Amino acid sequence: MNRFYKKAISVAFVFNTALSLSVPLTTYANDDSNSQKKIEQIEYGRSVLDKDQDKTDIRQDDNISKKENGSTKASDQEKNPDLVNENKNEEENETIPIKESESEAEEVKTDEKNEEQQEIHNAVDEPDNTIEGLTKEDIKVTTYIESKGWQEPVNQGDIAGTENKGLKLESFKVKSSHPELSIRYRTFSRNSDSWMPWKENDQLSNPVDTGDQIEAVQFDLTGAIAEQYDVFYRVHSKTFGWLGWAKNGEHAGTKGYDYQIEAIEIRVVSINDDRPEQTLPAYEVMSDSREKVSMNNTEPMLTASAHVQSYGWMDTEESLLGVTGQSKRLEALKLVVDTGAMQGGIEYRSLVDGNGWQAWKRDGKLSGTEGQAKHIEAIEVRLYGEIAKHYDIVYKAHVQSFGWMGSVLNGMPSGTEKLSKRMEALDITIVKKGTTEKPSNDGFRYPPKVQASAHVQSYGWLEANQNDGLLGVTGRSKRLEALKLVIDAGAMQGGIEYRGLVQGEGWEAWKRDGQLSGTEGQAKRLEAIEIRLYGEIAEHYDVVYKSHVQSFGWLGSVLNGMPSGTEKLSKRMEALEIQIVEKNTINSSSEEGFIKPPSINASAHVQSYGWMKSDENESIVGTIGKSKRLEALNLTIDTGKLSGGITYRSRVEGEGWQYWKRDGEMSGTEGKGLRLEAVEIRLYGEVAKYYDVAYKTHVESFGWLGAVINGMTSGTQMLSKRTEAIQVDLVKKNSMKADPDKGFKRAPIVFIDIGHGGKDPGASYFGLKEADISLSTGLKVINSLREKGFDVRSSRETNKHLELKERSTMSNKIKPDILFSIHYNSMGGNNWYARGIETFIYHRVASGFGQETDRNKFKTEDKRIAESLKLADLVHNSVIHDTKFYNRGVKGNNFHMLREPESPAALIELGFIDNIKDNAIIKTKAYHQLAADAIVKGIVAYFGDW
């Protein structure tokens, strides 16, 4: 027990101003001398009070009685009117009215008496400084008093402010020096006629010197150890004097009276210790008729706070907590009920994302989490004590995807469980017993449950196993013959429907909600099943199921109406497992859930014809000899006893390659008039282990191209040719060889590297910069190749700087068929003797200029080197022939742009800038065009008839 509140004995004197002084006595069992000294001080205080008591009418103050053995004895007050409020400070006596005829000496005497009384007060009200690691000095309260300004800070448990002097407490601040505990606070301001924002950590509760007055307050604890303490507080209000104790966010003060607060007292108490006795209301409210309404006889008042995503703590005296329409989660709640004179309070607990149901919290304690970004999913709230006999607590949750749930009351869950849905708001009210409607069945939602039964060979009707949803038997070779399925959807609308594939009869019509699917008494096996949900429940849940089949055992799981079992294989279903799971928690069904012999079905959208199916005999879809383009493709595969499927993608005119589609999804376009130019098709799953997919395309101008298999490209690219027909077949694995070069035609990809640029001008002589004339020549090469249908990429097409590493990296990402680099030459001096054109391929040399002129040393066994030499020869010879420049030959060198590219590469030097004769020619636009045309001729010759 906290000694701060042990065995309080109060004595008081009362003047005609209704002023009272409370002097509590604290005894110490382990310190007799100290105890005796304090008792002597008290006896002295009593003698002082007795002298003044004859001059005044004695008033029984605030009905606060001595606390004995944990219970309040109201009769003690009747027997001893001296037992009144605790802890009155020295400022009480400063308000004692003095008659004008009294002398200044009498005033001094009164002041001395006040000092003596304050000494008594300090002696008997000295608390134990240690409260579970929290000391009295850890909490300091500083007040700003009308006309006096800021006062000295006082400790918790001491009076902060003035009493009966008519001076407003205009502002205050509370500071906690304890690292794990803080107090937040807010006030009701007359000027704003509203509650001020929460403050803490020595922040001002209100602006000062504004003439405003505080009429009510709230205090609340925060921090790591806040759950171990309660904060109690009371106020000294104009006319009322000291009101009763409030706690943990309850209101203390007045409403509607326009009465100022003049003093406050705060006590932080361990939850295991005694609390201050409560016989007076903490909050006085005036009714609309302007008659005084005490909390002793008014409706209980609910005060609530919610911690909301992005907003933090939000407070309300209304019924609504949180926000709707903004997808913000509720993360924590604090609820307080001002019960007036009734005993009891409010308790609540939260179902938190990832944490489950928390322990019950009560009376302003935090339920949920703060700073962890976890949503509350459900809440339970109930009253306790005397108030619970007279009132109900009614509440409903606003939940992600569901909106407002139905109303529930008195501890019933509201929200959802195991659905991963956030609560966004809570509507909560207190109503008198007997005035509430029956709680809604739609106040709390949870995962639905399937109730299933099956008719099994030799066993008859069997119920599903409640643990795993298993229907039927395994390991006994017994057929499933019929099913009945029912779903407990809770408050949600909807149900379950299903159909069976019956031996000799095929697929039945859909049945639902307990109807029989299959046969009874006919000895016919179920071979496959399809199950799906309908109604509201289908918006939030998937039904997942799998079959145990003769010869195959358990097949893979499927969902939402997909077939499970076998078809055309004469295999019996022996068992079925069904589960209901939250929507989209299973991304796709198993590739092994349904088995039947494989076959491909193809359809295509054809210009002028629309959708056409494949020819059953030749598996061809499209037209031949009618010049009609294919625009879209749709492929499905019946894999039979094997799992898996078919996936495919199309290259579309103007759009390029689309994403992969599978199993009946449309690839291509419809209604846009765009041609298919190429396709790629492949199998996946178990069927791909035993079969290859073979296909070929009929293309404008080319006719049938060669057949390819398993994801190879069939058709054309960058040639503006329409695909007119496609043939698709399944062939046994490895039974067919395919040449990808015969099945696909595309424009060559050429990477043109234009040397230097930007801050790197290259060689510069006679006013001519290598970067400029290389760009002029290179752009002409690029434009000419593009006009001829080549797919041309480049390192630069403007005057910008690129490091060599950037250029080679760019090329390697593109993976071109060739790289060709354009430069102009120099030997390092004006009018140098060297002139002419030379071309290089990669060759590793050790010193000098790094040139290798002996072609026999080129590593042509390397395919890249061999192709580079072929390219260099064709381009070099073409340029020498057309420009008539001096031929310096094809050489080897260790240049970066020859060494680092992964594709065949050549670099040409188109003349010497520092040779005056070459310079006069190469600076002209005519030469740039001539050289560019010659380069293009060589590149075209390299690719031949592509």
Automatic annotation (TrEMBL):
<feature type="domain" description="MurNAc-LAA">
    <location>
        <begin position="808"/>
        <end position="940"/>
    </location>
</feature>
<dbReference type="InterPro" id="IPR006637">
    <property type="entry name" value="ChW"/>
</dbReference>
<dbReference type="GO" id="GO:0008745">
    <property type="term" value="F:N-acetylmuramoyl-L-alanine amidase activity"/>
</dbReference>
<dbReference type="InterPro" id="IPR002508">
    <property type="entry name" value="MurNAc-LAA_cat"/>
</dbReference>
<dbReference type="GO" id="GO:0009253">
    <property type="term" value="P:peptidoglycan catabolic process"/>
</dbReference>
<keyword id="KW-0378">Hydrolase</keyword>
<feature type="compositionally biased region" description="Basic and acidic residues">
    <location>
        <begin position="97"/>
        <end position="124"/>
    </location>
</feature>
<dbReference type="Pfam" id="PF01520">
    <property type="entry name" value="Amidase_3"/>
</dbReference>
<dbReference type="GO" id="GO:0030288">
    <property type="term" value="C:outer membrane-bounded periplasmic space"/>
</dbReference>
<dbReference type="InterPro" id="IPR050695">
    <property type="entry name" value="N-acetylmuramoyl_amidase_3"/>
</dbReference>
<keyword id="KW-0732">Signal</keyword>
<feature type="region of interest" description="Disordered">
    <location>
        <begin position="46"/>
        <end position="132"/>
    </location>
</feature>
<protein>
    <submittedName>
        <fullName>N-acetylmuramoyl-L-alanine amidase</fullName>
    </submittedName>
</protein>
<dbReference type="Pfam" id="PF07538">
    <property type="entry name" value="ChW"/>
</dbReference>
<feature type="compositionally biased region" description="Basic and acidic residues">
    <location>
        <begin position="46"/>
        <end position="90"/>
    </location>
</feature>
<feature type="signal peptide">
    <location>
        <begin position="1"/>
        <end position="29"/>
    </location>
</feature>
